[in-house]
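Sharing a chain and its predicted structure for anyone who wants a worked example. Both blocks are below, sequence first, tokens second.
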Amino acid sequence: MILAIQEGAGMGNVVVSTLALSVAAGGILMVLARRFRIPGIVLLLLGGVLLGPEGLGFVQPETLGPTLNVLVAVAVGLILFEGGLTLDISGYRSAPAAIRGLLTFGVCVTWVGVSFLVWLFFRVEPPFAVLAGSLVIVTGPTVVQPILKRIRLKWNLHNILHWEGVLIDPIGVFLAVLAYEWVVGGGGEEAFIHLLIRITGGLLIGYAGGELIAWLLKRRIVPEEMVNVFIIGSAMTIFGATEGLVAEGGLLAVTVAGLVCGSRQPPAIKDIVEFKAIITDLLIGFVFILLTARLQFQQFIDFGWRGLGLVAAVILLVRPLAVLASTFGSKLQKRDIVFLSWVAPRGVVAASMASLFTLTLVQQDRFQNPAFLESFVYSVIFATVLLQGPTAGPLARLLRVTEKEPDGWLIVGAHPVAREIARFLERVRGVPVALMDGNRKSVLEAQKEGLKAFYGDARETARIEDRSEMHGVGKLMAFTDNEDLNELLCKKWEPVYGREHVYRWASSPATEEDVNTTGIILWSWMPKPSMISSELLLGEAAIIELEGERLEDPGNLAALLTSHSEEVLLDPGPSSKLKASKATTRTLYLQREADYLLNALSERRILISRATTMEAVYEELAEVLASTETGITSDVLYADILSRESNMPTTLGHGVALPHTRFAGMVHASCAVAIIPEGIRMGDEPDPVHLVFMLASPVDEAEMHLAVMGEIARLCADEEVRTMLFECRDPQDVLPVIRQYRRQHTPFAQARG
């Protein structure tokens, strides 16, 4: 009795250590694979064999008994649910003919061709051969993306391989599950009826479950902090309920549920996808360590030379035939077809399904050698990953299907200003530009204008890099209203693009203290992008493109960027530093036409002052502003202005002062003007002050406050205008002078000409 207890305790320790080591090793190896940009399946396969009974013996899957089947089934169910949830249906609709061909004709040719070869080489039962053929249909993004990241393929090839990997998983899984259910049913009329029941039950339960999940999330019935718990519980409920009602229909049901829920785009889908991706990575690592630890060298020895011939035929015969059938009549060149025919690595989904089906078929004891599925599929995985991964780069260079170093842009922000910049870069510089935003409306507007734009979170560098829109992109422009976010994005993308290729908007120029910060600062003179975008929409600003070098005296035009087809200059300086080129140089300017100063002024706020001290002038102007603006009193405003000016007087030089404050309780920016005919000496200023602008703005209107100050500064920088204002002796004469200046310095007509 005691011995039995001790043996049971020992077995329990082995089970615990097996589970713990599988989770730990799987997670660590997935991290290493992501860090070094190699297919995770490579490290997982090697790690599982090394830790398993054929290696060090630390992981003992057989000690789990029937529990192993349950763990694998549940894990695969969650992986398939996440795959369906993240599938971009619009990607298929917008895919070129070659991709649609691979997902239709290519799938059929692969399935039929591999099934026939399996039967031909090993003379297994036809249903079993059909099941084996269905398992190697999929390629998968986890094995394709590391290859695409290392090789800068031509845009069309990159696009084809990317979308084939993303979209073929659910198709392959669906077909594999159908084939599996047919095999489990045993064939014949009765089996066919059972198959229809499984398919119908899986589809109906999965569809209803996906719709119900999306409905509950859209109506925010589920508390926000419990959404992820709810989604995992729901996926497991659908899987378990389907298995209870329709045996072997759970995998199909959870795949369909994920597809349906993802297509409905519930409000919490982004957080769900993020959380599910983490769980999926962990499950993939855990399951693979357990599954590969089960593999025995003997089963691959038994696979023998016939097995090697079969794998070679799958790679060298079936894949080329599938590509030829899929691309017949397309505009792809022969070299493109050759490259596509070679690159088709199998990965996570194929291995998971093969092991899951093998475990179930072993229990049923229906076939002589169900482990053949694992031997065949894992051999294909080993061969394709280890052969095609290292050779894809040299082959691409030999066939000349690669591109130069990426020089395109990812612009974070799809507002009107960003869209104008994107158009300019695409047209003049000739580089790809992708716009990204968390605002779906802005993304949709950009797409309607023919720009490449997508919705997402720019902090998720790993996920974004894999998108097809990012092909050819090698620089970042963080162009949102949030300066802290812009800097964070530069930090996130610096390891990807390099320190000299990440840019950001900030409201103040770089200083010596900013030497260690990340991101080259652009357009610090510009208010928030949203403010400029609003002005563009209201017709109070315009983006103007002019040919030639930057204007030395652009007036109220501000240069955004200068470019020709070989280079782009983004600094805010007045002169171009582009390399000499025969290409035409063009500059994009921002012209702000909004009359912020005139809107803040009125004749009632203009006075001719006979005061002899600046304090007295401030008091007069404070009384004028208080009498025309609700929410402020002259005493409080005067005290606030006096306190600020006593510490640091605000002067523009040449006889102009600009006391200003942002004042709680105000609704609009308000400005008052005092003309001082006799002039007042102010501190160390060489010229007596003859003109005083007092500006008071709401506390939360910093951009408006700066905009008015900027207009006053530009107005008073003109000596002729200053002289005219100094000489005014009637308040009614001031506004006409300012309006005349505005008309003369709004060069829309000549700029457009």
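Comments welcome. The chain has 28 helices and 16 strands.
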